[in-house]
Amino acid sequence: MSDILFLAHRVPYPPDRGDKIRGFNVLKFLAARKRVHLVAFADDRRDMGSDSGLTDHTSIIWRGKSRAVAALQAMLTNRPVSLAAFDDDAVRAAVSTVLTTHDIDTIYVFSSQMAQYVPTDTTARVVMDFVDMDSAKFAGYGRTQAGPMGWLMRREGRLLGTYEAKVAARADASLFVSDAEAALFRDQTGAERVFAIENGIDTDTFDPDASFVPIDLPPRTIVFTGQMDYRPNVEAVTWFADEILPLVRKSYPDAGFAIVGRAPTDAVKALGKRPGILVTGEVTDVRGWLAAAAAIVAPLKLARGVQNKVLEAMAMARPIVASAPAAEGIDHADTIAVGETAEEIATQIIAILSDPDAARVRGMAARRQVMQRYGWDARLSPLTALLAQAIGPRAHRDAA
């Protein structure tokens, strides 16, 4: 039986942030069916030398290239910064070792930055898991930002979009996290063999009745969870603190806001100096914070694909208010409240705080929806058919 080579831009375990959650569950799904060899970057020293027990061979390479160096290399070579940042000879050597010492019939590429390591002459099946359309994200940044940084974002969106289209043309399957994201990619690139493989959620772990350490919060605390050096999350909590929370406090002056997640930027830390706003930094278990919240918010102005933070809150049976972009990729069956403007989001939060019983009923409905719709085995089951397909003729794999 031939093996799978899994390429990841970040070690996909422990599954404690959005991309690692998807990566880990895909890896687990594949490893239950075939022998898998992993080559991945690490950007957290705690991940160096870690082992999931799921793979036969693992190579973890430290990604220490600075953003400044990556940007300079990208400018000199007319490449997207995203590619230059992940260009590494040690990874290239590790990939070569696996391909020459093992019978690999499938290369699973997690995130477009890793597609540069797929050899042009490979006969293996190539499954490209883009997750989100990153070029659209950077193009969105470029439309809203002026000056040199806006120019850099527009450049990244343009070059990365061209690269994504080339990668899809030479892959046997291109995967995205939602039907909307897959449709956007098809529309903008004309690519074929594009499929949606949605994210799931571990509803046994994220269960209000599971065992976890409880957190004591004031009764009207509103909670946001996420990686707090990720630009859309930073923008979301800033918008909430500046414009939405003051509206809520007109009805409930004691309403608080807890920003829960690792690596808060200086801008996020500054929010924690305001009355009633708590910035936690990294926590060992987010479930206690979710369970203690009067409401969970996901006020992202820019969001791509499926938001794990929303699925986790739904699984924990919490009342949720999300922006339209944050809710777009999720089949929530109206179990979460959605708002477009600061006023609409504030109104939805006030309604939750005003009627805790109704909020509790809606939270339980959200959990039922997640259990019916978002189990990982069900979400990943289409991979079985993709991996079983015969490898047919494909475009020449020119270096992307």
Automatic annotation (TrEMBL):
<protein>
    <submittedName>
        <fullName>TIGR03087 family PEP-CTERM/XrtA system glycosyltransferase</fullName>
    </submittedName>
</protein>
<dbReference type="InterPro" id="IPR017521">
    <property type="entry name" value="Sugar_tfrase_PEP-CTERM_Stp1"/>
</dbReference>
<dbReference type="Pfam" id="PF13692">
    <property type="entry name" value="Glyco_trans_1_4"/>
</dbReference>
<dbReference type="GO" id="GO:0016757">
    <property type="term" value="F:glycosyltransferase activity"/>
</dbReference>
